[in-house]
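cron nightly-structures :: item 1 of 1
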Amino acid sequence: MKQEQVTEAVILAGGMGTRLRAAVPDLPKCMAPVAGHPFLYHVIAYLQQQGIQRFIFSLGYMSEVIIHYIQEQYPGMDAVFSVEAEPLGTGGAIRLACSKAVTEDILVMNGDTLFSAAIPGLAAFHFANNAHCTLALRPMLQFDRYGVVKLNDDGRIIDFCEKKYYEKGDINGGVYLLNVPRFLLEDLPLKFSFEKDYLEKMYADRKMYGMPQEVYFIDIGIPEDFERANKELMC
């Protein structure tokens, strides 16, 4: 049966949070306390609202902390854990997690970013284009922390531009819809960057698309945004 919606997600939650160490010592980045809960709580709540029913947690640093939290706080969750024995890069981590997927097209997102993209609409666009990978993009103004993704009129990716100052542009929001069988067929090394070695090197020869969405976005990777998240996500 042809898949029409996305119900399974990989959450990349293996990061150490080095830049947050002063504010959040001795915790994986996604477990940083934000507005009374681990940041991962906010990511899970968003995904459940978007129709995600099965969760694959891609883990590395202090994986036992996250496993204990999920098993204790979400006892009924359909959750599996993909644990790296050694750091594999974002690409290697996603590939390992994909080996545990049960559907052909899955959502992938970072556990330290909350980008409240509308997943059903993104999925419809992804399936309509029979895409290898579809990125949720966040339009931004006056920034230099991110690179820019350029699209043609059909939404197909035509370029990834390097980090520098931009007056405006669409950034990679770290939310992807990925076709698992096609991705697992790629000839890539054990350790690789999903962004650099898959997206940026293969977009010209693969069906990769982007959909800009002007919705809430926060990346807690630096202390200033960690503090902002604590204010903005307070219920």
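cron nightly-structures :: done
The chain has a mean pLDDT of 93.
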